[in-house]
Specification:
The structure is a single chain. The chain has six helices and four strands; from the N terminus they run H-E-H-E-H-E-H-E-H-H. By secondary structure, it is α/β, with parallel strands linked by helices. About 25% of the residues are buried.
Length: about 150
């Protein structure tokens, strides 16, 4: 259990580091709402994070807003649930029409790792914290067992 969980946490950490690096290059991250924005900041993601579902915006309006900012590429990181998947597809199509590239690399990587366990980006910090606690407990238990022998 511990090696699998540790490996998973290491991969999540690398993805977050890469996401932060890409964002620092000027590529904004597009999430659904304010809580997703806060969650990314909580796990250390810096850079511009745009929300598409705040203020009653439609995906078309969000695309137009992104176009007004003058971005040539954005990182899409909407939720992993049905609505998030549909929203990602819709937003990607809208952006494609106005010649803005959508980077889905981070969405796919995170979805493969945690998509069955969490549905929302806003759940990512608590997922990581819980996994770290489980790993710590496992390591503690193993070290106590080894001391008994």
């Amino acid at each position: 259990m511990s090696t699998h969980l540790k490996d998973k946490l290491d991969r999540i950490e690398r993805i977050i580091a890469q996401l932060t690096e890409e964002s620092a290059k000027g590529n904004p991250i597009v999430v659904e709402g304010r809580k997703d924005n806060e969650a990314l900041k909580k796990i250390g993601v810096t850079g511009l994070i745009l929300t598409v579902k705040t203020g009653g915006k439609s995906f078309a309006e969000a695309s137009q807003e992104i176009e007004r900012f003058g971005f040539k590429e954005v990182i899409l990181l909407l939720d992993f649930d049905r609505r998030g998947i549909e929203g990602t597809q819709r937003l990607q199509q809208d952006l494609e029409r106005i010649r803005i590239k959508s980077d889905l690399t981070f969405w796919f990587k995170l979805h493969r790792l945690v998509g069955r366990e969490i549905e929302c980006i806003e759940s990512l910090p608590s997922y990581i914290e819980t996994a770290e606690n489980k790993l710590g407990e496992y390591i503690q238990k193993k070290s106590e067992e080894s001391l008994r022998f």
